Amino acid sequence: MFEERPLRADIAAVRDARAPDALVYDTERDFEVLPTSALTELTMVVDDVEPRGYDADWLPADHPRILDSLVGDDVVVGAPGDGSVAWTTQTDPPIVLVKPRIEGSPDDFVAFLVAEALVQVGLDLPEHFLGLFRDAYAEFAAATPTDPTTTYQLALAASDAYAGLHTREVFSAWDEAAETASLHDAWTDAGERLQPRLDGLGRAVASGDTSFTDAAELAAAGVKHGLDLPAPFDALDDPAYREHGARYAVAWAERVFS
Fold this sequence. Notes:
By secondary structure, the protein is α+β, with helices and mostly antiparallel strands. It has one domain (2-257). The protein is 49% helix and 8% strand. The chain has helices at residues 9-18, 39-42, 107-123, 129-133, 137-143, 148-172, 181-199, 201-207, 212-225, 239-244, 246-257; strands at 2-4, 23-27, 48-49, 85-88, 91-92, 95-98. Strands 1-2-6-4 form a 4-stranded mixed β-sheet, covered by helices on one side. A two-stranded antiparallel ribbon has the order 3-5. Helix 3 packs across helix 7 and helix 7 runs antiparallel to helix 9 (212-225). The longest helix is centred in the middle third of the chain and has 25 residues, at 148-172. The radius of gyration is 18 Å and the shape is globular. InterPro entries: DUF7089.
C-alpha cells in the first residue's frame, strides 16, 4: 500500500526546514479517506499511531453521512473532498501520502503540493476542517441556510482560507533561497493564472454562472496566493481570521447569510 517517495532537492529542503521528521510515501491506490484496513500496513512504516478522535457531537444532526468517517476512534487520513496529497500528524513521525491520481500532473505542480503538505505539517495546522471548527461547526451550519453538503463544502473552503493565511508567508519567502526558487515560481504562476478568475467572480456569482460554493473555493485559493478578492470573500483574508479561527468563520457566515 505504501512506498517511500523519492524527493526532489527542493522538496527535501522544505522538509528539512519545516518538518524534518516527516515521511513522504506514495500510496498504491487512491482513497478519499484512508481505510481502516490500511492501518496495519501504516503501522509498518511509522513508529506509532494515535487516533485524533473527533467528537461526533461536533456534527450537526443534519450532515452528510460521509462526515461520519471523521468521528470515532479510527485513524482518518484525508477527508472526503481532499485532493491528491494528504497528510497526518496522528502518526509518529508525521506522514504525507501522495495518491496515484496525481500521475500525469506537471512535476512542478506535484512538487508544490507535496511541499505545501510539509509546510502544513510543520505549522501544526488543523488536519481537517473539523479540527478547525470543532464544536463551532454546528453554529456555522446553523448560520448557513444551505443543504448539508453545500454547508460542508463552504466549511472546507473557509478552512482552506484559514490555512492559506498561515502558509502564504512561507511560500512567499521561497524565492530567498536558490533551492526553493522553483517552488516559489510554481506558487507565483498558479496565483497569476487564478487572478483573472477572481477578478470577475462577483459578477459570475450574481449572474448565476458560478455557484457561491465554487466561488468560495476559488477565493480560498486566492487567500493562499495573497490575491485580491471580491466581497464577501475578502473578509476571509483578514488577520482577525488567523487570530480567532472558527468563531470568525461563524461570524462571517452570519453576516453573509443574514
